[in-house]
Design a protein that fits this description.
8 strands; UBR7; three-stranded antiparallel beta sheet; zinc ion binding; about 40% helix; 3 domains; zinc; disordered N terminus; mainly alpha
Length: about 375
């Protein structure tokens, strides 16, 4: 999932999908859900935690009065307080406090944490909270858009933009990179200096200046010689002189330029190469960009945390909830039966997956008829 909102897929009725495709897609969806949702608490409102560093958020279109103020609710409140409502899934946002039940909701009271301040003054809102995205301000999915396109989140404004509206060609392996949209780059011009030295090779030049792409084909992960010469000497001098230098000033002095248009893509670890001198820290704080110095702020870090939490604290199985109302003997009988059927179904489907065949309704019907006959034989043997 990383920084991708999704790719709309359109398949004709004549197309078929093999079971192996279905199994792989199902596994990917489970991993994405674990990455995004497991990083947030599904049982307790996040409001007592204050402005959470990053969490999954939703905007309720059912509870928002027409023309009312934007509001966001946490994962738990989307389940407990807004079940069955028309919700806009916002993916994740940083430094946000749950609004559920505050004065922005005229009738709704939060079931999980009813005592809340009237407003959360530090929350930031965008047109995403109205179900609109990108510079084109369209909904997602867009019923009127017939173009297959991916949506990518800007790490600064956290809006989602269509790949075709970024003003540049989307690079390969975009899942491992962060993007800052052109609007946010222009609002913070110093970022263009960093972009000339640290951004993914070909940023924007593939669209407007192909000749410059050959000259500035840098790759941070492999650290070409020019990039190393830019950064390493400043570190050595700072150690020798025991006085911190400003990396941003050094990069400006070099004078390397790039086209200041289009979105900018940044490789993994680029934040650690930003200057952290006291002046730059103050400037970042003044621009409300201090989070750029925090590598744990990234969506990738949040997703990895979610996957780890999911592995440590797996969700409660609905089957086990149902078993709580049965006696011990009944529980054992159902568990054994369930495990046997699950194993047999997995083996049955695996044959189709290995051969790349499509499972038909007749195949599924045949499997359960066999299970039914087997169960009748077992019951007859017991009696």
């Amino acid at each position: 999932m990383s920084c991708l909102f999704g790719v709309k897929e359109k398949m004709s009725e004549e197309q078929t999908v093999s079971l192996i495709d279905i199994l792989e897609e199902d596994e990917e969806l489970e991993e994405e859900a674990s990455a995004v949702l497991a990083g947030s608490d599904s049982d307790h409102c996040s409001y007592p935690q204050g402005y959470v560093k990053r969490q999954a958020l939703y905007a309720c279109n059912s509870c928002r009065p027409k023309g009312g103020e934007a509001a966001g609710v946490c994962l738990a409140c989307s389940y407990k307080c807004h079940e069955g409502h028309d919700l806009f899934e916002l993916y994740t946002k940083r430094n946000f406090r749950c609004d559920c039940g505050n004065k922005k909701f005229t009738e709704l009271k939060c079931k999980l944490n009813p005592v809340k301040e009237e407003v959360n003054a530090l929350n930031k809102y965008s047109h995403n909270f109205s179900g609109l995205y990108c510079t084109c301000s369209r909904p997602y999915p867009d019923p009127d858009d017939q173009v297959e396109d991916e949506m990518i989140q800007c790490v600064v404004c956290e809006d989602w933009l269509h790949g075709r509206h970024l003003g540049r060609v989307v690079p390969d392996c975009v899942e491992l990179q962060e993007m800052i949209c052109e609007s946010c780059m222009n609002k913070n011009p110093f970022l263009w200096t960093y972009a000339a030295h640290l951004s993914v090779s070909g940023a924007a030049v593939q669209v407007k200046e192909e000749r410059d792409a050959e000259e500035s084909n840098t790759n941070l992960s492999t650290k070409d010689e020019k990039g190393a010469d830019v950064i390493e000497p400043s570190c050595k001098r700072s150690r020798e002189e025991a006085a911190p230098s400003c990396r941003l000033k050094e990069l400006r002095a070099i004078g390397q330029q790039r086209s200041q248009s289009g979105a900018v893509f940044w490789p993994s670890g680029w934040r650690s190469k930003l200057c952290s001198c006291s002046t730059c820290k103050d400037d970042l704080s003044g621009a409300d960009l201090s989070f750029l110095l925090d590598e744990s702020d990234t969506v990738l870090a949040y997703e990895n945390k979610g996957k780890t939490n999911e592995q440590r604290q797996p969700g409660h199985d609905p089957l086990m909830s149902a078993l709580d109302n049965l006696n011990h003997v009944q529980q054992l009988e159902i568990i054994h039966g369930y495990n046997d059927m699950k194993t047999e179904l997995k083996d049955f489907l695996q044959r189709f997956a290995e051969e790349g065949k499509v499972v038909t309704p007749d195949d599924i019907r045949q499997f359960f008829e066999q299970q039914s006959r087997k169960r009748r034989r077992d019951d007859a043997g017991c009696f």
